[in-house]
Predict the structure.
Amino acid sequence: MTILENASHSQPISLSEPFDKVAQRTLLGDSMRRFSRNRLAMVGLVIVAILLFLAVFADVIAPYAYDAADFTKPANQLPFVDVAHPLGTDGVGRDYMTRLIYGARTSMFVGLSVPLIAFTVGVSLGALSGFRGGAADFFIQRVVEVVTAIPPLLFALFMLSLTTASIGNVILILSATAWLDPLRLTRAQFLTFRERDFVLAARALGASNLRIALTHILPNALAPLLVQFTLAVPLAIFAEAGLSFLGLGITEPTASWGKMVGGGVGSSIQVYYHLALFPTIAVALTMLAFSFIGDGLQEALNPEYLR
């Protein structure tokens, strides 16, 4: 990329700025600088980093095992009463802070696995549909229309009622309908770029279709896909929490925020408020953090946005 092309996609050039610094500017560098100046995006990044740290090192950080019950303490003990259980205990005497920490592992694992599977399938089929066109595009779009007609929540409820409610099944079932949005976006991006001058020039120089798709079109389509991936993570977490809330998601004794909310909602919620309050706050903070990151990326990766 030349200096003039680079400058058109980055910050305005100051006349007092050294020439070597201007020449070293890149779109990625400018995007990272814009992202780092977005305070809400940085707050979201810190929250996600903390959640990932808790998820990875839950076995070390958690004071107890996730399925260990303390029968010396009363069940449903309120928070901030006992130093041994600062956030209280659940209905069978398990430490609630430990359950929340292990719930972060479950939510982050589901939240990242579902978009990874969905984007692998969606981007591949979307690239094939948008780049090749013809019969391949026609067939893929008909499949998309059929899958779109199936309500994702009802499909997940139906499939989980027929199978074992395990974390692997939850991920696969949620991924079965999550690939539609990345497919549509990828197809639109490939339809937009496949007739651009740089693609026509690469084809005239003898580049293969695979090389054109992977090295010329896909890198230009990554920005909106990256934003959509970031926003898909909280949707997957919320979907898993909803299924677990209904009793069809993660099974005991594995900790899940949605299942914890479902277990805490009932006639005793006015007394044992912590059972539903703390996991609800955890889900809300996680979704808010990823939303902040997604909005920050959308702003930072927009080449027309200059400060």
